[in-house]
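not sure who needs this but someone in the group chat was asking about DUF2961 domain-containing protein from Leptospira soteropolitanensis so here u go. i didnt clean anything up, its just raw.
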Amino acid sequence: MNIHHLSFLNALTKKLLCICKKRILIFFIGIFYLTANTMFADGWESSLWREKTYRNQRISSTDPTNGNDDFIKIPKKKTVTIAEIKTRGVIKHIWMTLASKDAMARKNAVIRMYWDNHPHPSVEVPLGEFFGQGWGEEYIMNSAPLVAAPKKGKSMNSYFPMPFESGAKIEIENESEEDISNFYFYIDYEEWKEPLNSNLRFHAQWNRNTTKPNTTNGKENEWALLGETEKTVFKKENYFSVLETEGKGQFIGLNLYVDSPTPLWYGEGDDLIFIDGNQTEANLKGTGTEDVFNTAWSPKEIFMHPYFGYPRVSDSVGWLGRTHLYRFWVESPIRFEKNFLFLLEHGHANSLTLDLISVAYWYQGLNPKPMKVLPKKEFRTNKPEINFRHIHKWRDSFRSEKGYGEIWGHE
């Protein structure tokens, strides 16, 4: 067999392999679509044609005169009830947007929700941070239960189902010094005749802590840059508390807003979840902040999945500045029968100073004790931005220590 025959056979073999690979790929794609279509038909599609007993209802900011002023005004320092429902049902969708001279209106406005004539709110969260936008900013958020949609995140949507047996009330408080001149909203709900057969109600709670290094020498040591890395010693008070609650329920989600005053990676801190027991040994223990949010290797990329993502990342050097992470346990809510505690390390061994804000989402029975009181807006303000000017001042302090010699900065 000469070289021409070998070349011909090689080319023929490659072509046949290519054809086989394409057929195998087509086969697996067909299997995927068949499986997906089966799941689709058994789930979402079937809910459209099977008979339902609820009645669709809506409360909105529509102009009662049939004009085009389809908004309400929420005066400064005032609280307005935007919905009060007296029946049984489930809120399925909330849409809101607003206009105000206050650039921080989304942080200075608070949304509260009450179920079944309970005296205490089950939801009490600054408006923007509830819908997945931190620091009073507007940006796109695209998850399964929460969506901040175009234009540039101005449209705020919730798809959390919110059941109630004997009534629901939603309030917006404007703590700003400026009116919310235009507040638009839809609240879409199902009115039910049959009992809910569940006492679990939707809850959301805001929490904040500016942490401090809890290392033995007080250093903000990470990645062993300032010496040997310490081992973590568990003390509940050293951790950032995402949620602590008593009763029966299930935890379903978390928005975490991180403002870091250091360029160093903030995410070596593990997550610890304690369920129905003592608070010394976690039932669920993680391996790092980026890991509980389903990412890897210190990401600085905008990424959004229905269940997890980074809708806002730091645009400064390293991880200096603001990063927003979210995770929703839609596939398997974390159940608890008696109590629940979710802690998060701030850097390995709780070594870092961070401004941490969380919004926890969960379902449980109505608790006779009120949730933690939301601080007033004066105590919810953003930390000052650290930028290149401050970094240059840090450099000058370093050069001063070295006697202002020929210093590059890596010494």
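also The mean pLDDT is 88. if thats useful
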